Amino acid sequence: MMIMNEKNEQNKKVKKVALARYGLIVTFLLLFAVMILFTAGRLAFSAEGKRWREVGEKETVIRDRVILPERGSIYTHDGRLLATTEPLYSIYMDFWADGMEKDTLYKYVGELSLALAKKFPSRTASQYKSVILNGWKMREEEQRQIEENKKRGIEKRVSIRSRYVKILSNDISYVDLKEVRTYPFWNQRSNRSGLIAEERNARKKPFGNLATRTVGNVYRDVEKGGASGLELKYDSLLRGVQGVKFRQKIQGKWMDVVEKPAEAGWDIVTTLDAEIQDITERALRDKLIETEAESGTAIIMEVKTGEIKGIANLDRMSNGDYAEGNPNAFSYMNEPGSTFKTVTAMVALDDGVITPTDSFHVGNGLFQYNRRWVRDHYWRRGQDRGYLTVAEGLAVSSNVVMSKIALKGYEDNPKKFVEGIDRIGLRKQLKWDVPLEGIEGTSSIRFPDDKNNYWSKTTLPWMSFGYESQVPPIYMLMFYNGIANGGKMIKPFIAKEFVKDGKVIQKMEAEVVNAKICKPNTLQLIHEMLVGVVEEGTAKVVASDYFQVAGKTGTAQIASGGGYGGYYVSFSGYFPAEEPMYTIFVGIRKPKGVPSGGGMAGMVFKNIAEQTYIRKVQLTVDDCPVDSLLQKDPLLKNGNWDHNRKLLTLLGLPAGETEEPAEWVKVKKDSIAYMPQPLSLNGSLVPDVRGMGARDALYLLEEAGLRVHLSGAGRVVSQSITPGSRLVKGVTIALTLK
């Protein structure tokens, strides 16, 4: 019993000692924890703590990086892309990447350089190798400097120059980016390869230079926004709103964390029609090449809506080619010449100064007023034309008739004549979709009381036939469209709809400049006289077999250095005259040869009008009589056989059959029928689209993953990538159609 009590006492003593030791350890740990918390708290809320947090954050977080918004796209009226944003990537290497190893880099740098030189031949393989190895050497050199500075107690951070080295001189597409990420050494994680792809937005025009001056351009650095045209005019809407992100290093890998997402810019739907635009540009370019002119302008707009459907501004470049240059349709300031005679006739008729049957003596085409000679274009022939009526004077474009009209009605009160021009609306200052500066884009018509514009004793008669004034092409288009539109003059426009996230935010309509440019009777008389100009006057060559045209020719000398040098020929009119649908203005600057408003500008008008009419107006069978002198079977295009077979069935022509079902074929005509030959299609090879129309060729190539650039019209006569060659998706293929 005593032994048991002794053991119990001994156990109690052991427990007390153990508890005391445990309590001591717990107390020590608690004190240690308190010290840690105290130290951490002191660091957290002290200046030193702030400094260390900043150091840590610099190593693991890069804040306030901009997310570039996607710039809005620009479309034709039917949804075809004129300008859109395409992401491009600048390729760098981060030679301070955590996992980059020297041995691995040196092992694969040769293979990497060869792959880069093959894909991007702007540098040789040895040059790529030199750039990459120099980047690593810069890192080693800076690392030595950092270590030496540490020994001296100097803190030095890694410089951007030694850290990020640009490897490719040009930015690349996403398709190319995916490919380079498969190259030796770069096929590792970015923290080992150091590969950095810095994304930026670039502007792309799928239709090439179609309406490029009107659509406009952006600066190479898209962040700077639009530089010209619609891109500049509506830059605030197109550019969108920047977002914010920060980069954070997580488990050795940099990750992007979005704080505020970017907002894409608005899209713009224009009034332009891709087909009419192409017709307009080709017709103008052909005539400029033929006449070796300095520049030219052509604009076509819908009469009722004011929508510009096609607009071309072509200047002769230093190499002799013609390309979109200045926005001449809006900015070219020149004396309009004889197209302005219609304005004179309208003002005088409206004021009751004349009637269409009033006659004026023109004689041999010379008339002297205040010691200056007014000359008609035929004056050198010595032909005495006696008297001409107002209608005849407009038809043959007589300067003498117009000057005598102006003097008869306004010699004693020239202010009334200019007030008549104001009444029409031709002196109103208007803003256009294409940004301009200064006087450009606004008519400059003299006024007797205006001290800034000298009014001489001969200003009135010379103004009557298109001199002593400067009127840009867009105003003349607007004026003639007012005649076609029943006297209602509306402002031509290009930007039709503004779209955000697929929803139309704002829809534009033409601004009414003048609801009534003249009296109804005057309008009818002017219309009849303009028809007479085409049917019996200076614009006979413009007359069409398909519809009636109303319009006026113009030929004006170009003021240069205090005198005149070269001519500006023009034609403005509308069609069909009885029910006008479109108004067109064409102007050609300094053509070679005998200047002719009808034979030069007028023929461009005719070409545009007839092609537009054929494409946009449904003709009846009676409008398309069979040519009994020429019976030829149509030449079918290669492409979709179902479409061709349906066409042959409708025409009652024989169609053969393929031995095996085939969707895409080449079509040949033998003595019996149109025979289809299956077109071989292999998903890894470039299709043969020669002989196809644009629609079928575009479908096949885009389905194959290629980008397509079209030039010309008709059927494909050549393709830039050989049919049957290896297919590389994302590459651009150029097609020439004739």
Write the layout of secondary structure elements.
Elements lengths: L1 H44 L1 H14 E7 L6 E2 L5 E14 L7 H18 L5 H27 L8 H4 E3 L7 H7 L9 H4 L1 E10 L7 H4 L13 H5 L1 H4 L4 E8 L2 E8 L6 E4 L3 H18 L3 E8 L5 E9 L5 E3 L3 H4 L9 H10 L8 E3 L4 E4 L2 E4 L11 E3 H6 L3 H12 L3 H11 L19 E2 L13 H6 L4 E2 L2 H12 L4 E2 L4 E6 L2 E5 L4 E3 L5 H17 L13 E11 L2 E13 L6 E8 L7 H20 L22 E2 H11 L12 E6 L4 E5 L15 H10 L3 E6 L3 E4 L12 E6 L1
Parallel strand pairs: 2-8, 28-30
Antiparallel strand pairs: 1-6, 2-3, 3-4, 3-5, 6-7, 8-19, 9-10, 9-24, 10-11, 12-15, 13-14, 16-17, 18-21, 19-20, 22-23, 23-24, 25-26, 26-27, 29-30
How does the helix and strand content classify structurally?
Answer: alpha+beta
Biggest sheet architecture: 7 strands, mixed
CATH architecture classification name of the largest domain: 3-Layer(aba) Sandwich
Distance between the termini: 124 Å
Helix content: 25-40%
CATH class of the largest domain: Alpha Beta
The CATH topology assignment of the largest domain is Beta-lactamase
Number of helices: 22
**Mean pLDDT figure:** 87
What does the radius of gyration come to?
38 Å
- Which overall shape is indicated by the principal axes computed on the Cα atoms? elongated
Number of domains: 4
Sequence stretches where pLDDT stays below 50 over 5 or more residues: none
CATH superfamily of the largest domain: DD-peptidase/beta-lactamase superfamily
Strand residue content: 15-25%
Q: Kindly state the number of beta strands.
A: 30
